[in-house]
Specification:
Length: about 500
């Protein structure tokens, strides 16, 4: 696709684009020249789209729909997708793989013994444990069992997830470079430790758009937790160098789900509609003068806010959900701001055409008192997560919805702090951790990758986080090598500039 053939006012992805100058000023003037040409030729696509929207004025009760408010790029998807929606369940703080999914029964004989130097092999550790005189092995105190026909091993901490073992692919060999939470979470969500890159959801919104006309293409939940030990950063769901209209929209855990969507007292829906029409005309004149794509973003955001006045209350009203469904998600399903409520709303969002839903659950940073804290965290997420998979499956939606579950890195086999049979802590461990995937494009009942007897090093089939991202893109019908955006002289990718390929062995 040649940039010069596109009528869109903002730069589109293409390997043939000429906007690869290292000089931002020159790049800007090149854009301006093209915009002036298009304007002179009468190709005012943004104005046409706006006119179409405004020609069918709507009341808040029934917003008008004209065309697709979240269109995909003209050449996407690259091939027939297996999944059309993504639900990403991010356990912020790094769940301990040894206590959840990477069973190492042989560690019991090493209790309180030094981690062998041959296993650690001089690898870096955090400053939180580098000063320890000892690195005693801490076996998991929790029982494991093989689950389902597949025999995937899972801990007693996740009894409900055991019931979905035959619906998932468990990857036990994920690794990353970052050893601290901020860069590791940034990498998990954006493919880079460097802030300023677009999040996965933003990339998908940019490339594939959304089927929803009345809800954002990318929605984020940050449910309340008992021990919110780690901060969340907006960079985990923002658009970076992509136009800001591809930002994730965060639904609040308390009060109105979205601030300022409701009309103020005394303001009628028709008043707001007239105001938006007038403001849209002013913004369109601004766009015609300066050609800034962010002006188009403002127009689209105002229009979406108007539509969300009715779509969001309908989304969050669970009155039509059956008793059986609510019970399946657990006792907190109807409590706003909980993980269970977020999981249920995630299903309702993808049911309504939203492309990407991201749930970020905090409290997994367990340097001490791990057995007590991880039990609390699992009680919070286990039943709703399993219910989400079952719910999607019974509705026929799992076939085209991809679900991802995991954290930013793993945790060490050696104890941080005081070690007893019943209590221990674990430090950060980027060398290996576990994640699982389910749904569209993914094989079922598969265990992929292996680690050594100490869950310290990968021994077979390593999976870098960007390989996981490439796999997600593949399921969504996108070739990660061809999916780029020109920025600062480089065709940027979600998966970075290195050669990265999907995990073919887990693709259905």
């Amino acid at each position: 696709m040649d940039f010069n053939s596109q009528p869109a006012p903002e730069p589109r992805r293409s390997g043939k684009q000429e906007l690869t100058n290292m000089n931002p000023a020159l790049e800007y003037h090149q854009l301006q020249n093209r915009r002036q040409f298009f304007r002179g030729a009468g190709l005012k696509v943004g104005g046409i789209a706006l006119a179409q929207l405004l020609s069918q004025r709507a009341l808040a009760a029934e917003p008008a729909v004209t065309g697709n408010i979240h269109p995909a790029l003209p050449d996407l998807p690259h091939f027939a997708p297996k999944a059309k929606n993504l639900i990403y369940l991010h356990m912020n703080g790094a769940p301990a793989q040894l206590d959840l999914f990477d069973y190492k029964p042989g560690l019991t004989k090493y209790f309180d013994q030094e981690l062998p130097d041959s296993i650690r092999n001089g690898q870096r550790i955090t400053t939180m444990t580098s000063g320890q005189k000892r690195f005693p092995v801490a076996p998991s105190k929790f029982a494991f069992e093989r689950c389902g026909k597949s025999g995937i091993e899972m801990s007693e901490l996740v009894p409900h997830m055991k019931g979905i073992a035959d619906n998932i692919t468990m990857i036990r060999s994920v690794f990353t470079e970052a050893i601290n939470h901020d860069p590791a979470c940034t990498f998990a969500m954006t493919g880079s430790e460097v802030p300023g890159k677009p999040s996965l959801g933003s990339w998908l919104s940019y490339g594939l758009g959304s089927e929803s006309q009345n809800l954002p293409a990318f929605v984020v939940f940050t449910p309340t937790v008992k021990n919110p030990s780690q901060a969340l950063f907006t960079r985990m769901w923002t658009s970076g160098f992509l136009p800001s209209k591809y930002d994730g929209v965060k639904l609040r855990s308390a009060g109105d789900p979205v601030l300022y969507v409701k009309n103020p007292p005394g303001v009628k829906p028709t008043d707001r509609r007239n105001m938006l029409d007038a403001l849209g005309k002013l913004n369109q004149k601004t766009f015609e003068r300066f050609g800034d794509p962010e002006t188009q973003t403002r127009i689209a955001q105002y229009e979406m806010a108007f539509r969300m006045q009715t779509s969001v209350p309908e989304l969050t009203d669970l009155g039509k959900e059956t008793k059986a469904t609510l019970e399946m998600y657990g006792p907190n399903a109807q409590k706003p701001g909980t993980y269970a409520n977020s999981a249920l709303l995630a299903r309702r969002l993808v049911e309504r055409g939203v492309r990407t839903v991201q749930i970020l659950h905090r409290g997994w940073d367990q340097h001490g008192s791990l057995p007590k804290q991880i039990k609390e965290q699992c009680t919070d997420v286990d039943q709703p997560t399993a219910a989400l998979i079952k719910d999607l499956k019974q509705r026929g939606m799992l076939d085209d919805t991809l679900v991802v579950f995991g954290g930013e890195f793993g945790r060490t086999v050696y104890c941080q702090g005081k070690l007893t049979r019943e209590n221990y802590g674990r430090d950060h461990h980027p060398r290996n951790f576990c994640m699982w995937l389910a749904g569209g494009g993914i094989k079922t009942g598969v265990t992929y990758g292996e680690t050594d007897d100490f869950s310290y090093n990968i021994t077979r089939d390593p999976v870098h986080l960007n390989e996981l991202n490439a796999t997600i893109l593949r399921c969504m019908g996108i070739d990660n090598h061809r999916f780029t955006f020109p920025f600062q002289g480089l065709d940027q990718r979600l998966t970075g500039v290195e050669e990265v390929n999907p995990i073919e062995a887990i693709l259905a």
